Amino acid sequence: SLGLAQAQAPKLPQKDSYKVGFAQTENNNPWRIAETKSMQDVAKTCNWNLVYADAGGSAAKQVADVENMIAQKVDLIVLAPREEKPLIPAVMKAKKAGIPVILIDRNVDQKVAAAGRDYVTFIGSDFVDQGRRAAEWLVKATGGKGKIVELEGTTGSSPANNRKKGFDDVIAKQPGMKIVASQSGDFARDKGRQVMQTLLQAHPDVTAVYAHNDEMAVGAIAALEAAGKKPGQDVLVVSIDGTKDALTAIAAGKMGATVQSSPFFGPITCETARKYAKGEKIPAWVKVEDKFYDKSNAQAMMADGY
Ligand code: AHR
To answer: Is the ipTM beyond the 0.85 threshold?
Structure first.
């Protein structure tokens, strides 16, 4: 019945090869580039004819990209939703067209859309836990003292929302620690640098920076140095991702630690799609496990960077 059809995400037929749409949010930083490459690489081994679209940092463009994939009658849409709410109509349109959607790396608003019902599953990291781990490192490194600047990711994106929640909850329990400012740097290096430069004028006594990704952390380090501060000494820097630049900064003593956020979604997405086509039950959340890098292992783990 129609009711039943709407209660479940569309099925994926078993075929030798698939036409797969990959809707990327933007492709302008090392993390995104590594993710795109992982999808392109797996397309060859998984027998996917990949239809790739880069939304260039626009949720509206990403919605149009998904609509375009629906019009092209792809078998499966792999979506990295830029923001939690604006991409929901695109997910619903694909469902209506009978095309299954697998969300990777970022999630959509869980109050509105549900895995198994509207899309197949979310494959990705535990962003709340990433924020928590960054905060726990900072508490330990400072003995629970400090004035913190937080550089947030893209407003309305699931990693920004959840990395903030995980971090802020831990810090709120520390009477000696305070987040003196929290502002978006849009996950971008130069934005992070600019925001840090401005915030340093209002808060010259800051002792720590928590950036929601490594690109903004690297930008913040540049701003700190331009202001005559010594990142890693006067001001501790902690962030998330595990890029080569961040591992290098940790090894050089300019950055304290970074929580890995793996961008390598290709193999796990291929495996999940195959299982789904076979009719196996897919969990609502296929969790990606992340490592942790600080001065004890950054140099040795440099090959993990991208
Ligand atoms: O969704 C994951 C985040 O998006 C990464 O941490 C960031 O670098 C990217 O742009």
So the answer is: yes
